[in-house]
Every structure is written in C-alpha cells, then in structure tokens.
Amino acid sequence: PQKRVSTERPPPIQAVIEAGVVPRLVEFVEDDSNPPLQFEAAWALTNIASGTSEQTKVVIDAGATSIFCRLLKSVDDDVREQAVWALGNIAGDSTTHRDHILHEQAMAPLLQVL
Fold it and tell me: What is this structure's pTM?
C-alpha cells in the first residue's frame, strides 16, 4: 500500500479519505504499543496532509495534530521523524493550519527534535 500511495500519480488521497479510513489511521497513530504500525499510519496521514487544503483539514479534524505533537517525544526515531514531516505538511499548507500547529504547542518539542 505504501508504494501505491507514494508512486501513483496523482496519489489516491481522496480515495483514502472517501474510504473512511482516516479515523482508523488516527487510532493507529495514537497506539504507542506498536511503533511499526504507528509509523505506517503516521506515514499515511502525512501523505494525506500533503494534499489539498481540504484534505489536510481532514487530518486536522480527525484529531491527528495533537497526537503528532505528542509523538515528537516518541522514543522511536522513525515515529518521531514522521511526526515532524506530518506537522510540516500541515503547517506548510496555510497560515491557518500553521497557527493551529502553534496553538497545539508544537514549537518547543519540535525544537528539541531538531
């Protein structure tokens, strides 16, 4: 699945959203007991957040941003790095989304990662 989402042009972001899996991906990202699954779910959400503003907002509305902020402190390097990418995609989409990330208090843990 990761290969299809990353190589298919355009990526099937809207199809993933319409399939209704975003809430389930957020559940997987929230689960610290399985870092490989957490990473894969974070990767998928990062790609969704790279889409249109409306698609990025789906990730925000699903509650992923606060989880990504928490994951900036993950003990798993891959999960932590994916959280940085996800927050970057969200913040880079618009000033409104950037301000949302700042409101979630992402700056301090983000600076610690860097």
Answer: 0.87
- Residues 47, 50: Cα–Cα separation, whole Å: 5
Contacts 24+ apart (CB under 8 A), 4-8: 5/44, 5/47, 6/47
Contact indicator for 87, 50 with CB cutoff of 8 Å: no
Q: Which of 93, 92, 83 is nearest to 114 (CA)?
A: 83
Q: How do residues 6-45 score in pLDDT, each as one tens digit?
A: 556 778 999 999 999 999 999 999 999 999 999 999 999 9
The one-letter amino acid code at 110 reads L
Cβ contact 30:66 at 8 Å: no
Sign of CA dihedral 76, 14, 55, 8: positive
pLDDT at 6: 55
